[in-house]
Amino acid sequence: MNLLSRTFNAAAWLVLLATSNVYGQRGGAWEALNRYARQDDRSVDSAPEPKCGTSLLVAAFARWQQLEPMAKVQIARSLQRPGRHKSKLSPAGFFRIHYDTTGAHKPALLNPGGNPALIEKSHEQYIDSVAAVLDYCRRVEVEILGYSAPPTDLQQGGGDEYDVYVSDLGTGVFGNTWWTPGDLIESTPNQRFATYMEIDNDYLGHRTPGLLGLKVTVAHEFLHAIQVGSYGIWQEVPNFDFYFYELSSSWMEDVVYDFINDYHFDVRFYFERFKDTQNRSFSFTTYAGPIYYGYERSIWAHFLVRRYGQDVMKEIWTEMKSQPFLRSAAKILQRRGSSLESEFTLFSFWNYFTADRADSARFYPEGKYYSRFSPNMASNFNGFSTSVSTSAYPLSTQFYQFSLASDTVTAIVVNVEADAAVVARPTDRAFDLILSSSHPSSPFQKLRGGAMIGFSSTPAHVWRTLYLESSSRGNAATALEPSPNPLRIRDAQRLILPVVGTRSADAQITFLSGSLDAMFSQRYPIVDVFGNKLIYVPSRDLQERIPSGIYFVHAQCDDAAFQWKVAIVQ
């Protein structure tokens, strides 16, 4: 089903225009969109308006049938191009800038000193600055980075140039990229639209004010124009994958203007508050207003670029001409010898190293400016047993902090179910995490302080776990060994076998009796968990196939062989 049929058809659009005042105030539509966005807000306290109005537009498009008639009228009004007194072409001729010379929307430069006052009669200088910034952003994003330029709008603004309208947007919203159903240029599963841009007339009172605010806005919004016009919007996924559009545009701000860093304001929400009312971290695919539209997840792009270079983002966007984001990302990462599951797991590990733990040589270059990841739970270990019984959404990361007598251990629990995350409301999956002074029945690892930490859930293959100690900021576990050992078939869900150093994709696992008779043999995949190569042998595969006893377990990889002694208890 395409966007027009999911939201509104051309006839309905004309009716809305006929019943709305196209030249009226735009604030009413903004209020309606903000009220609507906050109805879907899953944050625990108040939050600012989104910096980019395009998020509100997409939220409305995705849920059009749920909106009241008056809200639809106000939205229809807001999407019409505003009338302006004058227009000017940018020096390179790619942009037509529309602006007023009098009235509330008249642009002005800010006093560069400590007093944030407007400079009188500076509207033409402001427009010249806008033109220069637009040409520069296009040169970086299209000519240098290689993204496809946005399409023409068939002279809707008076020419084939891309239209930019200067308006008084208040102090919260930085800019907008708008389009209407009438701007459809390709009706495919990833529909493409011609768009126009709207930017603030002075950036007075913004968190990043003046020309600095203008620059990051244009870098952000022009990538939206590229995304919507050249790569398209996929209709088959919830919220059209637009969290990736926003995180990409927020990342692009830092690429084009590395010295400004407005995105720092947003990433703290991912580290501190990206959780539901039960303090469970949201799925990475979440798209919920007013603060979880994707700006706060731009660090995903910073992570990928640090790992693979800037072209990796363009490659994902190019692949998105053929399929939605997660499938595109998986394909591109596979080409680079990795997987979406492995990269998301490593991304979760990186997010431990921010603020005072930052390491710019190994992780985020600007990680010291990010917040610490707020734990989903913090607990004191009583010396005997401390447990967590909760759940996690697909494609999510949970941090659990345990204070021991000698150190603090953080358990990073990652669910890597990407396919299960591509639904409107992802279903959580239960798990148990236990810290104990004795061997827990679940697969465990021995910590350096002597305690044991175990994790259990089904199915086992969708989870990745790592335990870090605060003192060394390294692995809290001792040398990896098979766990649990003994393996109690009816209590544990899997046997974990470490295969350190191998590059193989899978291995043949064989259980040998004390007389070296082969009792059971099967091939299993090797998974990468925070850089550790592991094999998971489901307990059900061994149930009733081999009797209780002590066994040699042999793992034959393409490039290495491993052997351990494991006790099996049926």
Quaternary state reads single chain
Strand count:
23
Question: Mean of the pLDDT scores?
Answer: 86
Structural class: alpha+beta
Low-confidence parts? 1-29, 37-46
Radius of gyration, CA atoms, in whole angstroms: 27 Å
Give the neighbour order of strands across the main sheet. Answer: 17-23-22-19-20-21-18
What would you say about this model in short?
This protein is 29% helix and 24% strand. It is of the alpha+beta class. Mean pLDDT is 86; it is low at 1-29 and 37-46.
Task: Show the helix and strand layout.
Elements: H1 3-7, H2 10-18, H3 27-39, H4 54-62, H5 69-78, E1 86-89, E2 95-99, H6 123-144, E3 162-167, E4 175-178, E5 184-186, E6 190-193, E7 196-200, H7 210-231, E8 233-234, H8 242-256, H9 264-273, H10 299-308, H11 311-319, H12 325-335, H13 340-350, E9 377-380, E10 385-392, E11 396-403, E12 408-415, H14 418-421, E13 429-436, E14 444-446, E15 452-456, E16 463-469, E17 487-488, E18 494-498, E19 506-512, E20 518-529, E21 532-538, H15 539-542, E22 549-556, E23 561-569
Parallel strand pairs: 2-3, 3-7, 9-11, 17-23
Antiparallel strand pairs: 1-2, 4-7, 5-6, 6-8, 10-13, 11-12, 12-16, 13-15, 14-15, 18-21, 19-20, 19-22, 20-21, 22-23
How would you describe what is shown here?
The chain is α+β, with helices and mostly antiparallel strands and 570 residues long. The longest helix is centred in the first third of the chain and has 22 residues, at 123-144. The protein has a 7-stranded mixed sheet. It has a 5-stranded mixed sheet with strand order 1-2-3-7-4, with helices on one face. Strands 9-11-12-16 form a 4-stranded mixed sheet, covered by helices on one side. 29% of the residues lie in helices and 24% in strands. The protein has 15 helices and 23 strands. A hairpin with a 5-residue loop joins β19 and β20 (518-529). The model is unreliable at 1-29 and 37-46 (pLDDT under 50). Among the domains are: 3-78, no CATH class; 375-469, no CATH class; 487-569, Immunoglobulin-like. α3 (27-39) crosses α5 and α11 (311-319) packs across α12. It is elongated and about 90 Å long.
